[in-house]
Amino acid sequence: MDRDEIRKLGLYLLDAQENRREVPKITNDYPDLTVGDAYEVQEQIVHRKLEQGLRIVGPKMGLTSQAKMKQMGVNDPIYGYIFDNMVESGPDISLSRYIHPKVEAEIAFVLGEDIQGPGITAAQVLSATRYVLPALEIIDSRYENFQFTLPDVIADNASSSGVVFGSVIKRPDELELDLLGVTLSINGVIKDLGAGAAVVGHPAASVAMLANMLARKGLKLRAGEVILTGGITGALLLSEGDVVTARFDGLGSIEFTVKA
Ligand code: OOG
Ligand code: MG
């Protein structure tokens, strides 16, 4: 696919995001779009946002749990980027910032040293990790009905849109991250639950996978970035008035209210 088409698709998705408007998925018109092309469209979007003065908080993994893969009908992990203007500080979030947002519970990592793939293991990630913290990611596909194929969602920066971080941080050796239980509730009713192991066996394995995927592009994970490892639970659609609460064993809880 040529540069002009890549640029055009990047602008199409950026425009959808900026105008909070759902749009037909790009594989309708480009059925042969490859995963490689899709990451190039994503790079266009990232590049534009950096040009606009936004800063990268960190990369994220997506579609790393069976719950998420089944829900979205896409079976391969992907990555995207979270920007500083996506960080919600609570206690409310406003639907006006989104198209059709969903929430999912995740474990986030902050590294104390850079990690450069290939060949990175979960054990190497754990020894390079400064701390972990809980997060609620707010995903908001730019595509109609939140439906897409693998290349579509990659091009769309993995539906990245918002995130609420918890305030408890722990060193990874203070927790058993694979056994760490999480419940996700709306208005006091548990809607989904899971454990860290839902994420490719161990959340640190997701970070290792990310390091190895980035290495194909000559990129590395950097100390200080906040890295999302992917939804443990399925994602829940948000409606006005919802009080969303996630409880993480050993990592406290995160709560926000959905306003118009
Ligand atoms: C794609 C983003 C997936 C996760 O944690 O699995 C993701 C989507 O489901 O829209 O962020
Ligand atoms: Mg996510």
UniProtKB/TrEMBL annotation:
The keyword Lyase is annotated on this UniProt entry: yes
One MF term in the entry's GO annotations: 2-oxopent-4-enoate hydratase activity
Domain Fumarylacetoacetase-like C-terminal residue range list: 85-258
Pfam annotation, one family: FAA_hydrolase
GO terms under cellular component: cytoplasm
Keywords carried by this UniProt record: Lyase
Protein name: 4-oxalocrotonate decarboxylase
